[in-house]
Amino acid sequence: MKKYLIATIFVGVLLSSASIYSQSFDRIDKDPVDIAYLTNEKMSELLVKVVYSRPQKKGFNVFGDQIPYGEIWRTGANEATEVKFYTDVLFGNKLVKAGTYVMHTIPGEKEWIIILNSNTDTWGAFFYDSSKDVARIKVAATEAEVIDVFTIAFKNNFNHTSMVLAWDSTRVDIPLAMGNQILAKI
Question: For 106-136, what is each residue's pLDDT tens digit?
């Protein structure tokens, strides 16, 4: 009888603790957060980290419809995209000191404005303050294969580094230069 009572209590504890872990989550974010890294593979050092949310296309035409042309965009979903430079960087043609910034964009059909802003930890573009802009550059928008989920990645080609924004059929390459690359471009 004592063994039966102990076994019953043990099973009861297991079932009650299992119910804690099997709860449903009503409000799981549909736009997960991701992180993209740029590293110096030769020296194993971190150069850039981007934290952003990844909205999905969901069958819509993204740029021009879902994301209007000519309007400030948080460059992702939810909280504004944050970019951390671990070293000084030439962002397009602007020298930016090492630090953490928010990246906003103003999409256009052929050209985008890319903005680095010092007002970090903000939700969307609702608190965008142009007086806190650190860099503002223009880059070309090109067409490519359709990607359903917004993605930020880095591309290294023969001493040319860029941060690539990709969603739907749009690609935007933001030129970056660090260290000796900066000296070569100035």
Answer: 999 999 999 999 998 888 778 889 999 999 9
DSSP for residue 131 = G
Q: How far apart are CA 30 and CA 61, in angstroms?
A: 18
Question: What letters, b where the CB count within 10 A reaches 16 and e where it falls short, cover 60-88?
Answer: eebbeeebeeeebbbbbbbbbbbbbbbee
CA 80 to chain centre: 8
Region at 66 (left for phi over 0; alpha for psi -120 to 50; beta for the rest): alpha
CA distance 86 to 113: 23
Which tokens go with 125? 């573009």
Domains in the chain: boundaries: 33-185
